[in-house]
Amino acid sequence: MPDITTLPSYPLPQDEDLGVEVIPSHPLGVKPSGNALLATSNLRSAIGTWQLLPDELILMLLECLDGASLLAFGRTCKAFYAFTRAEELWKSLFIRCSPESFTWRGTWRSTYLNLPASKVPVVDCSNLYSDVLYRPFNCAHIVMDPYVTKIPKRNQIPRLPDLSPEEFHEKWADRPFILTEPIKDWPVYKNWTVGHLLSKYGQEKFRAEAVDWVLRTYGDYMADNVDESPLYLFDRNFVSKMGLAVGPPSETPDAAYWPPSCFAEDFFSVLGDERPARRWLIVGPERSGSKFHKDPNATSAWNAVLRGPKYWIMFPSGDKQDPPPGVFVSDDQSEVTSPLSIAEWLLTFHAEARRTAGCMEGICGEGEILHVPSGWWHLVVNLEPSVAITQNFMPRAHLCAALDFLSNKSDQVSGFKKTVQNPYQKFIDGMQDAHPELLQQAQEELQRKAEGKKRKWDDIVHGKAQDAEEQDAGGFSFGFGDDGSDVEVP
Ligand SMILES: O=C(O)CCC(=O)C(=O)O
Ligand SMILES: [Fe+2]
């Protein structure tokens, strides 16, 4: 019989391997709200008129206080002490002031206050019942195993040793897959442990979400944090910062890495220096990762894992395919809302996602590289401290999608320098110079898709709805398939 004093009042994964005993106690003893029902005393009764407010609102009000006021407020009673220990409050205070030099001290509060662990008081708040305070702690401690193992066969992302460019273009440009061989020769795969990066680049600053930290500090953070959504290092200038040479070893003998040959074709290269940002160094602790998104500008991507395996869950998109469970998209697809942290999404939606048509899942291990086709939704979580390199590219299979995106979704185009006016026209001009035939083919294809879509629309309007429905019943399509998905009705 589980100890009901530690039962959370929101869903836990239904897995026989997961007993409640795997959730450690909250450091202040705070328990989920549901436990208040059987409690004989409740610290909330000491907060006076504030009892009228829900916990969410109390926390929102506390976001308006500065550090000194938060400390003073926390001294008024144990319940408010627990509220003022919420890490999100201290994280945003710290990020707002972003000191040039500081010591990471295991939590955002201790770092902001520059408090050694021995000076953090242990206050017993075990008679406080709050999902708002307990949830982030619970999410930071979920066991990943049930979500990333026992992947149903139909969902498994194919694993292949390698692919030739021809095989990729003919069969694989619309499908996720993992290649197990090509990056095993990369010097960065052989050398880049977290320790090696810290000793070689420890004093170099890298971008991690809203902050630029020296790598040494980010390493301290990676090794010692309890964040529900850990700060993620995602730096697009790593090649110049680290002085790397990139390219096929035949042309660049001292290359640190090079794209596998099946991913070498990249038509955004016709934009030269004006191409949008395309490659990132990604470093993060266990539990860090990327929430559901599609890659920018209808590009495809590869993601090469140098250290620490990553779990991927992916869905195709198209106008007959809903976004993944728990993801909400505006009608023109310009706004994507995925309100939950990765851990909370796993707790709430993973089981449903696994059952949803089109779902693909897999673990990309050290020394492996994963293909993200243009237009695919993906959520990624690091199962161990991780180092990866990702690069976006535009293969011929998705030229038509790129033209469509740059011309019809110009408000969603991203990653270009502010000085680049009219990226669509720049791309057309570049392609006209370098690959006029391919450009013409892609433009004709786009035109055909637009006409097909218009014909379908006319058929429906003029009474051939049943035929159209029959055509529509063919299951999901891969992004920019033959069904004309994503093309606006002209
Ligand atoms: O490694 C990750 O967190 C995922 C990065 C990503 O979204 C990508 O490579 O497209
Ligand atoms: Fe991505």
TrEMBL record:
Molecular-function GO terms, alphabetical: cis-regulatory region sequence-specific DNA binding
Pfam families per the UniProt record, alphabetical: Cupin_8, F-box-like
InterPro entries per record: Cupin_8 (IPR041667), F-box-like_dom_sf (IPR036047), F-box_dom (IPR001810), JmjC_dom (IPR003347), JMJD6_ArgDemeth/LysHydrox (IPR050910)
Biased composition, class Basic and acidic residues, residue ranges: 445-467
Gene3D superfamilies recorded: 1.20.1280.50, Cupin
A GO term from the CC aspect: nucleus
Residue ranges occupied by any JmjC domain in the UniProt entry: 248-410
Chain spans, region Disordered: 445-490
Domain F-box, first and last residues per copy: 47-93
Name listed for the protein in its UniProt record: Uncharacterized protein
